[in-house]
Amino acid sequence: MRLLVVEDEGGIASALCQGLTESGYAVDLARDGEQGRDYALAATYEVILLDILLPRLDGLSLLRDLRGRGMTTPVLLLTARDAIDDRVAGLDAGADDYLVKPFSFSELLARLRALLRRPALRGGDRLVTGNIAMDLGARVVTHGTEPVTLTPREFAVLEYLLRHPGQALSRAQIAEGVWSWEFHGESNIVDVYIGYLRRKLDEEGAPSFIETLRGYGYRLRSEVRRA
Q1: What is the mean pLDDT of residues 99-103?
Q2: Where among 66, 88, 120 does a domain terminate?
Q3: Going by C-beta distance under 8 Å and a sequence separation of 6 or more, which residues neighbour residue 135?
């Protein structure tokens, strides 16, 4: 899951990026409103976390701009303003949710999960291929009836594959979807995590459910169903 954080306060921005990355999200950081607009228009994000008080272009103006362009990406406003009128202004500008600083990181994660579970975005709370099932809300993976323990990053790689069934995915596509703009093309990090998933999820004696496309990337073999 790829997120965009638009936040100019250094301490908050660093804490958000570190916490979200450790939770398995791919995170891009923009330090002002104009940079946030550039990022939002250049890539596809599942959620945008947007501060209101930003230099160069304030958060509400940026939000109205993106909505005016037809962008429907869920937006979670982060702000120190807690007056009712401020909340109403943010929601009227097109925000999907509103979180007042200071906030607990666990509440932020819960609100993100709620936005990501919305039917218009998800089309279902489960992804299934063969004997492998992923519960997106509970963040649980099972192989048959047995639960499989995955790290946050393994979960993110598997989710990206399950969301692109049957598609030929380059290593760069997977990396940018899971690690964001910080990915370096010469890294073998994608191959490493594909190896981790195969060891945990492949059935002995059967072809891997992740097909290697030599010199390019990977493809999920089985048809994925949304449940």
Answers
A1: 88
A2: 120
A3: 125, 126, 141, 142
